[in-house]
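for the writeup, i need someone to sanity check this before i put it in the appendix. the sequnce is what the collaborator sent (i think, or maybe the updated version? ugh). structure was predicted straight from it, no edits. if anything looks off just tell me and ill rerun, i have time this weekend
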Amino acid sequence: MNTQLHQLTRALRDLHKQLIHIESQYFGNVGSPLEHLQLITNHPHFAWLQKLSGLMTQIDERLDEKEPVTPAEAKAFRQSLEMLIGPCEEGDQEFRAKYNAMLHDGPELVMAHGAVRRLLAAI
């Protein structure tokens, strides 16, 4: 399970990066990298991404523990991610609406989404 989750976290980082890139284009000129980081972490325009960021942090923290991740834990992470990015129907509709709209705005994002979905399917 740990190997699969490590692969998933790499794919999630790429997905997150693509989301930030597109959302930053919507926002406009952000200035220096430090100003960009402050906007991403503090500005309401980017706040919706914090749900994905927080889940990524939870997975990373669990992977840092000595004990291997159990199949039940991996499944719980999968379900949490699917609540955000699909296909779970009873997921976070606010997040999903923004996310799905952004999937139309960049082929790199679509590719990153596909990579995450493939890895989730294997868990």
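Helices lie at 2-27, 33-42, 50-64, 71-85, 93-102, 107-121. The mean pLDDT is 94.
thx in advance!!
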